[in-house]
Specification:
Number of domains: 4
Strand order of the largest sheet: 6-9-8-7-10-11
CATH superfamily of the largest domain: Ribonuclease H-like superfamily/Ribonuclease H
Shape: globular
Radius of gyration: 30 Å
Distance between the termini: 80 Å
CATH class of the largest domain: Alpha Beta
Strand content: 5-15%
Helix content: 40-55%
Largest sheet: 6 strands, mixed
CATH architecture of the largest domain: 2-Layer Sandwich
């Protein structure tokens, strides 16, 4: 060990804060000082943001020599082990006697606190110093500044700086642990009295759901949390039938009047719906509020707890939901969720007000939650007989296509197997290239369209598509009431667009991606007629107004086929003009544009340049966005939705920024209409949000009236660059099925 280049600890021996990393890197080994390379620069930035002077910290590492290739687990190649350095680290701690130790990374956390893993979950929490148990020194754990995750989650760098600020506050005596009373095993009178006290004040509700039903309901705030048991954790009833009925009656009274707070509360409301319906005064969702402030971040309660509370990480306390969980363990976990959610609510509410985003949250985003939850719960009616028939027809078509493929290539091929498709394409057919995904096969089909290979590739694609239709849409059963349901998320996309997935009970499907072949299966309810109102060329119009390009705006104002007018201006076909304009508006590079429009890169570049020459405002728009993103300036759409980009600025970052304004504006136009329809015309039943359209039903004798109302709300103007834009809406009314004519 003496022959190895050592990097000792560095800093004042009376430091209040001691920082412990894992091991030196290349620059540290060269200079003989800890944290001097790229990781050191990031650490310096964190310290500066936290208001901590580096030269007032004692900085060291668990291991004092650089491991081979910076791989901690390769220390033995140097003839040393981690254990060889532990006595020295203990001596450093005893000599410095800091008020707080900051552990950077998993290895430092493990050595100092005994927590074996989970730095991502545990960061931001304080733990006892188990390495020297007779010293009462809190250890704050956070990520190592050299962690690779910062490249994919750049916001974590800001969060780690916040962690260090927490260490500083602990030193300065500003760190206060919240004290919350937990009430378990309440009696019926206790429940009634507690809920009555919370009728008129913001209160958190959180459920635990095991064995297919609500197991307990947590209710409370940051001072007191009551856990109301419904069943034991083994599924056995906690109350008699009469007693449980009284519990639900008392909860219903509370549910109908109290301002309710929740975290990702659509889930809880879905599970409680059959018991108590939807709350009358749903007040705040911490997940959604955080997404309004920080749309590109994660929003789980563990992360929010680490930022807005001083509570240590607790989410692993009830880890194995399939194993045996005691009632007390689950209740303790539930109570902590209540306490944490209320503290997070207080922090987020203050931040919304400070950033002047509270009006946007309460007036725009929060009301959307119930709009889309009601749509999810309602679902759409499915023609089940037609579904069975279509499924059988699809199976027959797949068998026929598979037989044809076998005849063409001389052997059976499982198109669902990447290995078999790869062997077919690159070995048997001797095609140059690699990959078997949809995008690659599309490229190959276009390249070999005029050869004998082309039909084979097209057939592989066709069989895959038919299998997807069968497995994703035609074979899965509907709900017992003959409906498909989807779960919408108002935080699913950074731009404000919805995302959708299967319903909360695992049934249904993503109703935003229903292919044209499946749409005819959706039918109106008895006495109702379906309609769809669609915004016309919505995103392209928003781009024109945001770019403030006179020529493009004039095209839209004059009406007609705008894509054809763009094509005439560029001297190309309508199809080509549509592809070039859409790709160029969103910063698509010439290589991807070439692939999308099926032309060589040189021609794609020429077409894109021609487009920008015809509409120079579009290029200026992109330059303005580039400057704003690189300066980390917040970027707002006309409704007040905000975007800020963190970390390294890449081309993908800029592409995301180019799409944020048009996609978010169109999404918010749809959301505005949906909110107003729910509030002012509840007889118009909203069924689906398809990004730039709404699908709904109304009594057959009023469907034209309904269509006129929906169009009016969709066409309400927005102000962009000081000028109003009203996007035309077109409506199609369907006689029987949701099927485009």
């Amino acid at each position: 060990m003496k022959t190895l280049r050592r990097v000792p600890g560095m800093g004042p021996k009376d430091a209040d804060i001691m920082i412990v990393g894992e091991a030196p890197g290349e620059q540290e080994a060269l200079t003989g000082k800890p944290f001097m390379g790229a990781a050191g620069r990031r650490l310096n930035k964190w310290l500066g943001t936290a208001g901590i002077l580096r030269n007032r910290c004692y900085i060291t590492n668990v291991v004092k020599v650089r491991p081979p290739s910076n791989k901690y687990d390769r220390l033995e190649e140097l003839g040393v082990s981690e254990a060889d350095f532990i006595p020295e680290l203990v001596d450093e701690i005893k000599e410095v006697q800091p008020k707080v130790i900051v552990a950077l990374g998993n290895n430092a956390m493990r050595v100092l606190t005994g927590n074996e893993s989970g730095i991502m979950k545990r960061r931001g929490s304080f733990y006892p110093l188990t390495l020297v148990p007779d010293m009462d020194i809190p250890v704050l754990v956070t990520l190592h500044p050299a962690a690779r995750i910062f490249s994919t989650r750049p916001e974590l760098s800001s969060i780690c700086a916040f962690d260090l600020k927490r260490a500083k506050n602990r030193v300065g005596g500003e760190f206060k642990q919240n004290q919350c009373e937990y009430i378990f095993r309440p009696g019926l009178s206790d429940i009634a009295e507690f809920l009555q006290r919370h009728h008129n004040k913001p209160t958190v509700v959180d459920i635990e759901f095991i064995h297919g039903r609500v197991t307990c309901i947590g209710v409370g705030d940051s001072q007191v949390a009551m856990v109301i048991p419904i069943t034991h954790t083994d599924g056995e009833p906690y109350w008699s039938e009469e007693e449980e009925l009284r519990v639900w009656e008392e909860f219903q009274k509370f549910w109908d009047v109290a301002p309710i707070i929740g975290q990702n509360f659509s889930f809880d409301m879905t599970k409680l719906f059959n018991w108590v319906g939807l709350p009358k005064n749903f007040y705040f969702d911490t997940l959604v509020a955080h997404a309004v402030l920080y749309p590109t971040w994660k929003h789980d309660l563990a992360l929010l707890t680490s930022i807005y509370t001083t509570m240590p990480y607790y989410k692993d306390e009830v880890k194995d939901w399939r194993g045996r969980i005691t009632d007390e363990s689950l209740w303790g976990y539930n109570a902590k969720d209540i306490e944490a959610t209320y503290l997070v609510y207080e922090g987020l509410l203050a931040e919304l007000k400070e950033d002047k985003m509270d009006e946007f949250y309460f007036g725009h985003v929060h009301p959307e939650i119930l709009v889309y939850l009601e749509m999810s719960l309602r679902g759409v009616r499915v023609d089940t007989e037609k579904k069975k028939k279509l499924a059988q027809e699809m199976k027959e078509k797949i068998i026929e296509a598979e037989h044809l493929l076998e005849e063409l290539v001389g052997r059976p091929v499982n198109v669902g197997s990447p290995k078999q498709v790869s062997e077919l394409l690159y070995k048997q057919l001797k095609i140059k290239g690699k990959g078997t995904d949809k995008r690659q096969l599309k490229k190959l089909a276009a390249r070999y369209a005029d050869t004998s290979i082309g039909p084979i590739i097209q057939l592989v694609n066709k069989i895959r598509q038919m299998r997807k239709l069968l497995s994703s849409y035609l074979e899965p059963p509907t709900s017992p009431d003959g409906r498909w349901r989807t779960s919408y998320s108002v935080t699913g996309a950074n731009s404000g667009r919805l995302s959708a997935r299967k319903f909360a009970d695992g049934s249904g499907l993503n109703m935003q991606t229903v292919p044209p072949e499946v749409r005819p299966l959706i039918i109106a309810d008895d006495g109702m007629t379906l309609a769809e109102s669609d915004l016309s060329q919505a995103e392209a119009r928003v781009v024109a107004w945001e770019a403030d390009d006179p020529k493009m705006k004039q095209f839209f104002l004059e009406g007609g086929d705008v894509h054809q007018r763009v094509a005439d201006a560029m001297g190309v076909t309508r199809k080509l003009a549509k592809g070039v304009s859409h790709g160029s508006n969103y910063g698509l590079g010439v290589n991807l544009l070439s692939e999308m429009i099926g032309l060589p890169v040189k021609q794609a570049r020429e077409l894109q340049n021609s487009y920008f020459m015809q509409f120079p405002g579009v290029k200026r728009r992109m330059r303005r966005i580039d400057a704003a993103v690189k300066q980390r300036k917040p970027y707002y759409n006309p409704f007040g939705r905000r975007m800020t980009y963190w970390g390294m600025i890449t081309h993908d970052t800029l592409k995301s920024a180019y799409s944020f304004f048009p996609q978010g504006t169109v999404a918010d136009i749809i959301h505005r209409a949906a909110r107003k329809l729910r509030k002012e015309h509840p007889w118009i039943i909203l069924l689906l949000n398809n990004h730039d359209s709404l699908v709904y039903e109304a009594p057959t004798d009023r469907i034209k009236e309904a269509a006129a109302i929906v169009e009016k709300y969709l066409q309400e103007p927005v102000v962009i660059n000081g000028e109003e834009l009203s996007i035309p809406a077109d409506t199609e009314i369907f006689e029987e099925h949701w099927e485009k004519r």
